Amino acid sequence: MARGTEHGTHRTWPSARQAAGRLGARLAPVPRELPLERALGGVLAEDVRALVGLPAFDAAAMDGYAVTGPGPWVLVGSQLAGAPESCAVLHPGEAVEIATGARVPKGAESVLPYELAESGGGRVAGEIEPGRHVRWAGEETAPGETVLSRGSAVGPAALGLAASLGHETLPVLLPGVSVVVTGDEVTTGGIPGEGRVRDAIGPMLPGLVERAGGRVERIRHLSDDRGALAEAVADGDADVVAVCGSSSKGPADHLRSVLAELDAEVVVDGVACRPGHPQLLARVGNTAVVGLPGNPGAALVAVLTLLVPLLSALTGRPDPTRETARLPLRGAVSPHPVDTRLVAVRLEEGAAVPVGHDRPGSLRGAALADAYAVLPPAWDGGDVEIVRLP
Ligand SMILES: Nc1nc2c(c(=O)[nH]1)N[C@H]1C(S)=C(S)[C@@H](COP(=O)(O)OP(=O)(O)OC[C@H]3O[C@@H](n4cnc5c(N)ncnc54)[C@H](O)[C@@H]3O)O[C@H]1N2
Ligand code: MOO
User: Annotated region Disordered: where (predicted)?
Assistant: First the structure.
């Protein structure tokens, strides 16, 4: 699965993706009990049960009158939602004017909506259907019932449901990613000065990570300092450390030596793809370390090759960028003789159309594109695999 290149022993692009998935399946992220507002996008680490029934009490489903026994009924009170109880027990022949969501008195048989009622002189009349227009306690969900299963994704509706069932927090798998952006020349604001460059990878990562089921917890910017990089990579709190830059073999590229010093298991050391060949994947204890090339376009390809499959496997979800259907490629492209090439494309009328501007140092093509088309080594012009951009 690996082959020698001028850069050493690189894995093939498909094998690198698989290796990232296998590492993710091997590492167990620690479940976290997160407040509801932070649990969005996670995967449930345990079943979620109803702490209260739904509804929690017998409630009116319409504005009108709670009644019992045969009509007409004598009005004995009124009940708004959330207001103190005005009538504890309703007796046959009695009615309470009631608002939607208000607790119906004990003994009430049904609610007669205003539209169907005739009222006046302290009395109400109308046709009722026994049991209608009351949301009976527990009829939707019984207390203690399992409503969401372990392994399911937490979407916005799940958060609302959990709140209505009495939960403050949810137990989720949501791998935390610590991002380390390296480079003396990299700046974080304004127009970069002579010889400097604005960080283009830090702003791109949170959205990509979130899409793959993780969360960027921290972004640090480091100069090309070996000691600081070693400290950041050894961060035991993160499930994943993503190091941007420092992936190549220049005098300021310390990642490989730092990993050796930390006795890391190096899983992928270079990938036979363009762009993005210096990418790297390693394990330090229970933390995965992903080395993203400094060139932003190459970093994005490395995210799709290593980081997204890793995060997906950590939470047991399918890789959201994978497409099963292959598409014809419409436009001029030049495959690489021995490496896989990823070309930024728009998806138009069942074909992949190159958008250009996809050199390793640029994100312009990726920002215009829907996806990357994957050209295998020495591509013969057949239909191509598609990797969706989030
Ligand atoms: N002798 C070799 N040199 C290089 C090789 C090689 O195989 N042999 N590979 C080239 C390729 S391909 C890439 S990609 C880069 C990878 O370099 P690093 O990951 O070590 O990154 P740097 O050297 O720090 O930076 C490369 C390039 O990207 C700019 N950069 C860095 N960080 C950012 C950022 N956060 N946002 C925007 N731009 C960034 C940096 O200024 C450089 O221009 O190595 C080649 N060299
Ligand atoms: O392959 Mo590099 O990763 O050209 O930018």
Answer: 1-20
Give the ligand with the smallest distance to the CA of 181: 1
For ligand 1, atom 30, name the residue with the nearest CA: 294
Torsion sign, CA atoms 268, 271, 272, 278? negative
Tens digit of each residue's pLDDT (9 = 90 or more) over 136-180: 999 999 999 999 999 999 999 999 999 999 999 999 999 999 999
Q: How many residues does the chain have?
A: 390
Q: Is the CB of 256 under 6 A from ligand 2?
A: no
The phi and psi torsions of 364 (rounded to 5 degrees) equal -60, -50
Ligand with minimal distance to 280 CA: 1
CA angle (174, 239, 3) in 5-degree steps:
115
Q: What is the pLDDT of residues 198-248, one digit of tens each?
A: 999 999 999 999 999 999 999 999 998 899 999 999 987 899 999 999 888
H-helix or E-strand spanning residue 119 = strand 118-120
Ligand 2 within 6 A of CB of 360: yes
In the chain, the N- to C-terminal Cα span, in Å, equals: 28
- Determine if ligand 2 sits within 6 Å of the CB of residue 247: no
* Domains, the chain, ordered by start: 2-29+175-314 (3.40.980.10), 39-52+145-172 (no CATH), 59-135 (2.170.190.11), 340-388 (no CATH)
Q: How many CB atoms lie within 10 A of CB 4?
A: 8
* ipTM, 2 dp: 0.98
Query: Which atom of ligand 2 is least distant from the CA of 301?
Result: 3
